[in-house]
Amino acid sequence: MTKILCMGAGLVGGPTMAMIARKNPAVQVTVVDINRKRIDAWNSDHLPIYEPGLDEVVKEARGRNLFFSTDVEQGIREADIIFVSVNTPTKTFGHGAGCAADLQYWEKCARQILEISTSDKIVVEKSTLPVRTAAAMERILHSGKKGVRFEVLSNPEFLAEGTAIADLDKPDRILIGGHPTPEGQRAVRKLVELYGAWVPKEKILTTNLWSSELSKLTANAFLAQRVSSINSISALCEATDADIGEVARAIGTDSRIGPKFLKASVGFGGSCFKKDILNLVYLCEGYGLHEVAEYWRQVVRMNEYQERRFVARMLKEMFNTIAGKRIALFGFAFKADTGDTRESPAILVARELLEENADLVITDPQALEHARLDLADGIDRVTFESDPYQAARGAHAVALLTEWREYRTLDYQRIFDGMVQPAFLFDGRNHLDHAKLHAIGFNVYSIGKAALKHF
Ligand SMILES: NC(=O)c1ccc[n+]([C@@H]2O[C@H](COP(=O)([O-])OP(=O)(O)OC[C@H]3O[C@@H](n4cnc5c(N)ncnc54)[C@H](O)[C@@H]3O)[C@@H](O)[C@H]2O)c1
Fold first, then answer.
1. What separation, in Å, do the N-terminal and C-terminal C-alpha atoms of the chain show?
2. pLDDT attached to residue 109
3. Residue 9 CB–ligand 1 contact under 6 Å
4. pLDDT tens by residue, 67-87
5. What is the structure's pLDDT at 239?
């Protein structure tokens, strides 16, 4: 029986391995993590992450051929294939701080694999890594072990949080990079076989290692660039009475452009876009490609501009003062259907509002715990409230920052009646029925559209 180990039981490792185990009942899959709380949660009825459909997949395979454990060493010893899916955040210290990928967790895994292994292994990079990381991994793995062979593959993950299970079930493509040597190609075939259990062969792309590593960074950079591009035009729409929804539809119907990722908003967030673009920027700088680095850096800058612009507009429209005003933030997660708040635009928006001495009430169906940690330093002026009606009571403004479906169906008349007048609503996701809100009495501001005011 083939034995698979995954190091890192996070948002990628957990769901990905659950899917592999579900589709390959004859393969044993173990997911390990150094975080005991996380592993305990994976073994309980309350999984550590919220993903629609995840519970069923885990329940089907757990205990059959899917196991969660903290015994990293035993896992390594027994495994034929080891996926490394640990976090690779942006470095916060030393050389490349704020830009380069922090590879310390990843390197620790490589060293531990080398130390513990007594049999040949295929080591698969699942984490998103700078191009040519596999070369460094090989250097560590081949530094002095007698008779044990390691073959390194790159298999980046393209799932998106909130739709992880659907993305894993029907991926646009699976990317597997390996060396062109016979051993490398044999390892690639093993991984192809694993995914081939449910993914059509033509969707499994095999490439060289470096193309695979670079494609993941490039895919995220391109996606983020589209969001920054449409957001940049939203600012022009607000200045000219053009409508960003209409512009997006007009350009999105061009088959060369396509409609996806053209939704203007308060900004993109999540653990990957900013980190991966900065990773790309740092790589380009390292190769002396300063213009290329600057080009991609601008995508991140445009996003920060969009977030600040949102708060600047709130301030301007609310008579240039929000000090002491109660403002309700509807949503804190970086997008709907996830509790993840990493790099959520809500963080910067909240911080800027606090700078203006506003009193904040934050509500979110899944992300309040993370929000509390994100705003720990300003906590005395922030209230957390799970009920949106309570959150909006006595508020001067509601700012919608996450496109949770349930926010569409709230009773906005009831919300309006409980607010201080004139009541303001800022829709950072163009998610609500603005004409209806205006008819209720709200002054409505959205992204890239003319304001609907009563004065
Ligand atoms: N989150 C996403 O949407 C997404 C999508 C595609 C790719 N990625 C990439 O996948 C990688 C993992 O992302 P994530 O969101 O799952 O991160 P995460 O922070 O949710 O999970 C990483 C886990 O690795 C564990 N870990 C760290 N060192 C370890 C070690 N030595 N042994 C065992 N476990 C260890 C941590 O405790 C943590 O639980 C990153 O490189 C990320 O860029 C993320």
1. 72
2. 97
3. yes
4. 999 999 999 999 999 999 999
5. 95
pLDDT for res 145: 64
> Per-residue pLDDT tens for 156-191?
999 999 999 999 999 999 999 999 999 999 999 999
Q: Which of 109, 237, 272, 284 is catalytic?
A: 272
DSSP element (H, E) containing 251: helix 244-252
Note if 272 is an active site residue: yes
Pocket probe for ligand 1: among 86, 108, 112, 338, the residue whose CB has the most ligand atoms within 8 Å is 86
- Would you state the pLDDT for residue 146? 73
Q: Whose CA is nearest to atom 19 of ligand 1?
A: 87
For the whole model, what pTM was predicted?
0.95
Q: Which two tokens stand for residue 425?
A: 């609503």
CB-ligand 1 contact for 16 (6 Å cutoff): no
Q: Which CATH number fits domain 208-455: 3.40.50.720, 3.40.50.2300, 3.20.20.70, 3.20.20.80?
A: 3.40.50.720
Picking from 271, 257, 273, the residue whose alpha carbon sits closest to that of residue 221 is 273
Return the ligand 1 atom nearest residue 12 CA: 16
Is the CB–ligand 1 distance for residue 12 below 6 Å?
yes
CATH 3.40.50.720 placement within the chain: 3-200, 208-455
The conformation of residue 409, written as its DSSP 8-state character, comes to G
pLDDT tens column, 242-280: 999 999 999 999 999 999 999 999 999 999 999 999 999
**Residues 85 and 12: beta-carbon distance below 8 Å:** yes
Give CA–CA dist 304/298, Å, rounded.
10
3-200, what's its fold?
Rossmann fold (3.40.50)
- Name the residue at shortest CA distance from atom 4 of ligand 1: 12
Mark out the alpha helices in 341-443 (DSSP H runs). 345-355, 368-374, 388-392, 412-417, 434-440
